[in-house]
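User: structure tokens for this one?
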Amino acid sequence: MNSETIARLRSLCGGPRDGALLRLALGQALLAAGDAAAAATELRTATGFDPHYSAAWKLLGKALQATGSAASAADAWRRGIAVAEARGDVQAAKEMRVFLRRVESA
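Assistant:
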């Protein structure tokens, strides 16, 4: 995603449409643009809006890993796995377990 998209998404933050989905989209755009630290900030906000949003936990882990914080990434994935299992989101839990195993074995 380009800077125009990121700017458009940021302009919606703090407004009536602000929420977990918007922050997930912004975090995803920032991560794709190579700004993992800013992505992690937005994804933490997404999990604050909805702590039961497994996709936000999964992407937060990826963003944290990209910043070089393997321990924080592992923590995000552990929390995401618990959320995904509680919601019956089997695929997300599987993916995060794979990411967790990789970071733990590194």
